[in-house]
Amino acid sequence: MKEQLVALQTTALEALQGLETLGQLGDWKVQYLGKKGELTGMLRGMGALSAEERPVVGALVNDVRAALEAAYEEKEALLKKAEREKRLAEESVDVTLPGRAVKLGSEHPLNIVIRDIEDIFLGLGFQVADGPEVEYDYYNFEAMNVPKNHPARDMQDTFYINEDVLMRTQTSPMQARVLRATAEKAKAEGRQHPDPVRVIVPGRVYRRDDDDATHSHAFMQIEGLVVDRGIRMSDLKGTLLMFARQIFGPEVEIRMRPSYFPFTEPSTEVDVTCFNCGGSGCRTCKQTGWIEILGAGMVHPYVLEEQGYDSEEFTGFAFGMGVERVAMRRYGIEDIRHFYQNDVRLMSHFKSRM
Amino acid sequence: MKISYNWLREYIEIDDLTPQELGARLTEGGIPVEVFTELNQGVTGVVVGHVVETRQHENADKLRVCTINAGTGDHLQIVCGAPNVAPGQKVPVAVVGAELPGDFKIKKAKLRGVESQGMLCSAKELGMDVKLLPKEQTEGLYILPEDAPVGHDIADYLLMNDTVLELELTPNRSDALNYRGVAYEVAAILDRPMKMKEEYTAHGNGSSPVTVKIESDNCTKYAAQVVQNVTVSESPLWLQAKLLAVGVRPINNVVDVTNFVMFELGQPLHAFDLSKVAQDTIIVRQAQDGETHVTLDGVERTLDASMLVIADPEKVIGLAGVMGGENSEVDAATKNIVLESAYFDPGTTRKTGKALGLFSEAQKRFEKGMIDQGMITNALLRAAELIAELAGGEVVGGPVEVVKKGAEPHVLDLRHERVNEVLGTSITEDEMVAVLKRLGFEVSGFKVDGAHRITVPTRRPDMVREVDLIEEVARIYGYDKIPSTLPSGNYVQGQLTPEQRLRRTAREVLINAGLNEVVTYSFTNVGLLEPLGLHTEATLTNQVKLFNPMSEDRSALRTHLLPSLVEVVQYNRNRRTNDLALFEIGRVFSPEPGVDTPVTERVRIAGIMTGNYGALGVGEKGRPVDFFAVKGVVETLLDGIGITDVLFVRAAQAGLHPGRTAKIVKRHEGELLELGVIGGLHPEAEEACDLSPTYYFELHMEALLTAKERSELVVPPLPKFPSIERDIALLVDIDTPAGDLLDTIRIAGGDLLVSVRIFDFYQGAQVPAGKKSLAYGLVYRSSERTLTDEEVTERHNRVLEALKAGHHAELRA
Question: Where does this protein hold Mg(2+) (chain B) (predicted)?
Fold first, then answer.
């Protein structure tokens, strides 16, 4: 029987060597260590042994069992590891294949520019106002110090609906509307002087121009207006310098040149350092080193007085800029019509929200 | 306004500045100069030559062989193709080695076997602006005056070595529409004295034969001067060159002088042939309605009573400030002339010119109202003197003047502190006074109420208020010296309005849902509604119309965003982009007036989707857009805005598929508030517009704002007790809307039902004909205790009964 046990151990361990899967290992366990397995069968045969032999063989059986169980555990660990590795290998993917991305849409570049500019001025304590695109002649022109028969009102510039109604040619009429609303509020509350105003007005305006690479019969403007006690032209300069550096970069400078708008006095054109050459002079800036970006000035006393502000007590500044112009410069878009063609091949470049 | 550097130099010392440097100084001062044109486009070595004799070329019919004296010693032999070449002429000769514009170098050449030692030149070959030359001078050789000195450099002789600066004048600076004004500007900028003669007093002998009458308020001053026995002919070269430099065509020595003086002093002048003025009497009056008049351009004009005319007792002889008349024109036979110098009302001049489609240099000056009334008589005398000199006439008597209203210089008060208050500068009083003096303004030695009294000369009628003077001080002092500060004062936090926030949120959500934002024009045409089936709606065809559209296509304001979006879809499909998901936040317009607005403008959030839509992995097939894809976008959008409990109600709407259209509504204060619409385009519209299946949605801003709960979001406590879920599978009639059952379930489920959703839908072979299967998942929970099975079963049975009673819904086995 001893020989038998030794032979069993040898056979079993040999068989274990050749096993490759956990399933086979399970079968092996049943065959040798199970309740109906060979070792148990041998144990049963111990009844035929003498009393002297029994403890000796019993001890030997236990040794064999311990040896087989130890071998089993070792093998099991080995096979589990192998199997895990196999599974990992099978589960690996080609990480270079494209993801199932949720396709992002895009914000229109003009609205990106407007949003950025709004955010800059919100941070400076400005409100944002919206106004009508179909406007009374009064607000668009007369309230802005452009009386009837002023050369600036020529029919070829303005789309009229009728004698008194037109498509606004500028966002400036909102200066008068905002001032009027603020002055009326003060009046209703029985106060002598209206509140100060800090507002920007983004919006669409219309001019009777043929559409080409640099002209559009409809385009976006942003108007700015600050009216308070003690507002100075230097405040205009400082505000626009801050704005220009946020939009065009911290290194840009601005330049003010005398100009003319009926509703500001003094009036100024504002240039920024040429983005292309940094100010040294190139084709983009016609060798001047400067690029014109907006018109501005101190609010004309007439505009203040017309809406019920005391122009001795209050002063203000106003500015107006073309959104397309900023967007064209910023994104290197050379044809203004691209903004209104809405070619998705162009728009998909504006997916990023930053 | 074109300014010749050489001409300007006669009035102000600028020799130390190049034209470009001068332009830069003007630009800084507020008159931008970006264009500088060299009159000499590259002519060197061309000289005045004398054509000694010509003979026919032996091998060519159209060529002549000329013998030329170019002052170079030996005569030159030059072959010439110009038909107008003739012996005795003086012509420009490009000798061998000369250069012409376009890098054209003259070499010795043989033409058809005959040697040619140079080239005779036309005006064009010299780079001259031929548009302004008389026709005979543009065809063939440019024939020079007989007294042109042989051998003289042509560029020098024709005064071509000059630079023309183009001044971009803003409307308020029409005072600089002449050399005098520009010279004053330069004098102020450079702080230099003028060297211009501005006062003319010379009177002729005898007394003037003319009588002047002003019969209209639209003329405040009229002065007339007679010059007799003139010989009308070509102007001398210097005068022609000056006019050509500023872009004016030379005509004859009388007309040219009137133009010259207009450019020099700013006062438009006109010359009448005195023999054509009846009774030597000039009357300034309003035209009569229907009166006709033939202007200098030979066109008969019908006038009306709003127009101002110059007349004699018998007829109209000119349109005041706009154009002269043919019947009083100065021509080669004219002997006696009467010159006009006047002030006409700007508005009247402008309206007359516009009504008749005329726009002359004179009108440009009158309509701006910036004529220096102090120069009216001076300019008249200056012109009379020059004409007498150049046309050999004699000035007769003095100017006959009628003055209705004299022009006084403006006297304005300027407070020194106010200058710095407005500008934020610290300009001293002395600096301020010095600047004003540089501008030629008179500053009083005393102060009135702390203000300086400033007398502004009549050449600057744009100075009307204190702030105008402040701008002048700032301009000359230098805008670059104004410091940069930030506004002080009470600060209010900048904040967006609810509508602005809603727009931003909607934009974010739709972009994250994969839609591209577009921006389209507002101008449209009623015809664009028809292919989309929208023309049957009166609210859509009732468009606000433009009075002066640029084209019929864009002649009205849009009432609907769909046509604009369809145009964008078509544009992109034509470029082979077929999967499109687009949106626009845009305005529509309707004619009824709004609150203090002339028409009603409404904001719409509209989207259009076609082709495939949705995230795809490798190898997965695209999913065509259907109603539910678009509805999903709208639901996500409404979630993002924070509008909940929205109902989609089957609806019919023009242009949309009757079976695939829903109104988007929400119960609000007891009424159904319509938020918008969603639907597939009608197949007929798709066909008419060459579209594949396309879906549209539209939300109304004003309704969204009403629907949006104003209250802050308060998060309810997380559930403390477990929930119990029950599913129901039902058979209902095929046309029963699944959404209707939701309402029934919610009402019957009462307080214990926390949510219900539709999780399955089937119609087809597995269910009886005319029926469909719907499955709902219900969640029951109490906030106070753990529900028992019995409680839930009892409530759930109530739900089942309600469904049976309300919708004939049967439980599916």
Answer: 462, 468, 471-472
